[in-house]
Amino acid sequence: MSEHLLNRRQFAAGCAAALGLASPAWRAVLAAAQPAARTVKFPDGTVVPALGQGCWHLGQGRHPGEVEEDALRTGVTLGMTLLDTSGNYGGGRSEELLSHVLSGARERIFLVSKVEGNEVAGDGVARACAASLARLGTDYLDLYLLHWPIPSAGFPAVVAAFEQLRAARKIRSWGVSNFSVAQMEDLLRVPDGHRCATNQVPYSLNNRRIERDLLPWMRQHDIPVMAYSPLGGDKHLVIGDRTLAALSAAHGCSPAAVALAWVIRSGAVIAIPEAGSAAHVRENAVALSLALTPADLQALDAAFPAPTG
Question: Is 134 exposed, middle or buried (0-12, 13-18, 19+ CB in 10 A)?
Fold first, then answer.
């Protein structure tokens, strides 16, 4: 019998359809009837959805290009407007695929790409950025990341290069990836290092290592984490776990949505799952408005214990 009951959102939508109500006031009622999507704020005040889309394997033959493009467009439509790529993903093929998605929708999308540590010498940061912009078919990036740490002695030059790109409006902000607490502290000591927008690191139910030190440090400094492999990564996916299966059944969603909702639960973490089909994107997008209960969180802590020591 319960399957025939309407929730508040369904009831409101049904009434609107039946009565033909489309006024601004009624749209406000409909908006209030559905959970607010989670967002995260960067240090400069920019607000992005807490759930974006990773593009590591896209454009490399796992799925037909048009299927992957449709998946990305579906995610953007559902509010997953942050797209994360890199110049070295598939030798630039990921960025080239994204160029088709960006066409006609650039202002809706928060675009992230990366420069490699072996590219930063001399004017390498500027050259790598120019190459990424050409492949993407755009004239700016919203966020540009140093993909992997380099020796701390090189931080001042990289930050200066990022700041030059920002002044030239080639990028709007910059950050880092795979940095430890010690490396973040060294970064913040250099001129303009405090402008770092994020640190992109692995974080998932089965990889909670950053909770020991990095995550608390990032919160203390009001710098959000961007979580890659938020479902555990290709070889360690969490979605087959029995606890996740039980919780997903209770919430009427996929195990992936529950796992992603857990990753973004704090409001200080952005998750960037990758999906090669629109169907998987739709499953993931549910996490944007999925509220896990204290009992849910306790069950997940029991199944995936927090790190000790």
Answer: middle
pTM of the model: 0.87
Name the DSSP letter for residue 304.
Answer: S
Q: Token match 């039980």: residue?
A: 246
State the residue for tokens 């639960």. 265
Residues 187-212 pLDDT 10s? 999 999 999 999 999 999 999 999 99
- Taking Cα atoms as reference points, which of 213, 204, 142 lies closest to residue 184? 213
Residue appearing with tokens 């319960």: 2
d(C-alpha 4, C-alpha 273), whole Å: 33
**Full DSSP string of 75-109:** HHHTT--EEE--TTGGGGHHHHHHHHHHTTTGGG-
Domain ranges of the chain: 1-34, 38-303
Q: Which of 280, 198, 278 is nearest to 237 (CA)?
A: 280
Determine whether 236 is exposed, middle or buried from the number of CB atoms within 10 Å of its CB (0-12, 13-18, 19+). exposed
Among 183, 108, 163, smallest CA distance to 138 is for 108
CA distance 190 to 153: 10
Positive/negative CA dihedral, 259, 56, 59, 39? positive
Radius of gyration of the chain (CA): 20
Sign of CA dihedral 153, 199, 239, 280: negative
Q: What is the per-residue pLDDT across 246-292, written as a single tens digit (0 to 9) for each?
A: 999 999 999 999 999 999 999 999 999 999 999 999 999 999 999 99
3-state class (DSSP) for residue 145:
strand
Assign 3-state DSSP to the chain and report helix, strand, coil percentages, each to 5.
50, 15, 40
Please tell me what DSSP assigns to residue 257.
H
Helix (H) / strand (E) containing 248? helix 242-251
Question: What would the CATH number be for the domain defined by 38-303?
Answer: 3.20.20.100
